[in-house]
Amino acid sequence: MIPRSAPSVYLASALCTVAALSASSTVHADSGGFDGLKKMVTDATANVDLRYRFEGVDQDGVDEDAEASLLRSRLTLTTASWGGFAAQLEFDDITSVGPNDYNSTDNQETEYPVVADPEGTDLNQAWLAYTAADWTAKLGRQRILHGSQRFVGGVAWRQNEQTYDGLRLEVKPLEGLAVDLAYVYNINRIFGPDDGAQPADWEGDNVFFRGQYSFFESHSVAGFAYLIDIDSQGAYGAGQTVNNSTSTFGVEYKGKFFDWLGVNASYATQSDDGDSELDYEADYYMAELSGSFKVITVRAGYEVLEAGEDDNTGLNVGFKTPLATLHKFQGWADKFLGTPADGIEDAYIGVSSKLGPVKLAAVYHDYQAESSSVDYGTEIDLVATWPINKQLSLQAKYAEYEADDLLTDTTKFWLTVQLKL
Question: Which of 246, 282, 375, 397 could form a disulfide with 308 if both were Cys (CB 3.0 to 4.6 A apart)?
């Protein structure tokens, strides 16, 4: 089944219809007439992106080791622009091409650790956009990536990307100022195309806002608001649906001094929203320094997702980031995709460099509970990326999490080959 949900079919059809009607309504005003519409199609581009990945997981407490050998094939069709209009369709297919011994979250292979890459074919993007001098409006299924993707992202690390159905407006009213506002009624999650242990889609009423002002070439400040209201789904409990409904407001700063010293800081506050059964408040904050030298870059940071007390139960609730690109944060072993009830403190240090054309990086994490004395353990992450040319790249990646008072020891290894045509 191609779409992740039935509305996807209607969405794709509606977009094509809207594109045709929009073009037709302007045909008399456009000097090119239907020739312009024809050129919009004949000058369209088609891109193919093939990404093969082997992922191995050894996790204590799970009977077997996981081995997943998967190919993601992506076809992207993008029209040329005409009268400010453009449209895109993008399809993804995820197919096993080797060992298939893993828990994809929808294949019932629970004797293996989770590798959250279900097989299937779906509509990844389907949008119509209109661009004027200083603003762009986009309707349909689309990527929405805000800042570092700590709160809203695409989870592009996984083979099945997270995309959003809705209307997005991006405006640049003044030099250095960018405003991004979106209404999203459906979130197409990485667990699709079909429901499994996790819902493939989250329907609801969601508003994303981010305003960023850049100044002095290498400095920026941003404010953001994420109002997430997820609908209930009968087959899933509140913890997998409505309890992810939150209101989050925050600010961030990013800058560079002396051409080598980087500073990154952020603060946010969160409370329950929508039909959530929780009643809590919690804060988030992080600070990171980085230094870039001739052949090496070093960074050190401290990130905290607090715990707040649920007034309904008296139990703790961790600060939630359900739409983030979570693999990017708190270690590549993905042990903290959901914030523990006692919150989390992540103190980390990383180093990156190059060996010829190969990019190298290593990160060490120390995890502690925010509201108790629980020690969550440590993690070491290693990666080597070789961009052979503009089309072909190779990557080897390793993560080793050593548990202490929570969770279990986990080792993961990835080998990725990506070809873009």
Answer: 282
- The answer to whether residue 339 is domain-embedded is no
> How does DSSP assign 25-37, residue by residue?
HTTTTSTTTHHHH
Structure tokens at 48: 């193919």
Helix (H, G, I), strand (E, B) or coil at 142: strand
Residue 85 domain-assigned (yes or no): yes
pLDDT tens digits for 86-138? 999 999 999 999 889 999 999 999 999 999 999 999 999 999 999 999 999 99
**Host H or E run for residue 9:** helix 6-25
- Band (pLDDT 50/70/90 cuts) for residue 8 is very low
Do the domain assignments include residue 293? no
Count of domains in the chain? 1
> CA 145 to CA 150: how far, in whole Å?
9
Whether pTM > 0.85 for this model: the answer is yes
Give residue-wise pLDDT tens across range 136-173: 999 999 999 999 999 999 999 999 999 999 999 999 99
Q: Could you tell me the residue range of the domain that residue 238 belongs to?
A: 6-281+320-331+395-420
How many CB atoms neighbour CB 390 within 10 A? 7
* CATH number of residue 222's parent domain: 2.40.160.10
Rounded Cα–Cα distance for residues 384 and 4 (Å): 33
Kindly compute the dihedral angle of the four CA atoms of residues 228, 230, 236, 239, in this order, to the nearest 10 degrees.
30
Question: Could you give the maximum distance between any two Cα atoms of the chain, in Å?
Answer: 71
CA–CA separation, 301 and 327 (whole Å) = 17
- Is residue 375 assigned to a domain? no
User: Do the strands 375-387 and 358-368 form a parallel or antiparallel pair, or are they unpaired?
Assistant: antiparallel
Angle made by CA atoms 239, 241, 247, in degrees to the nearest 5: 95
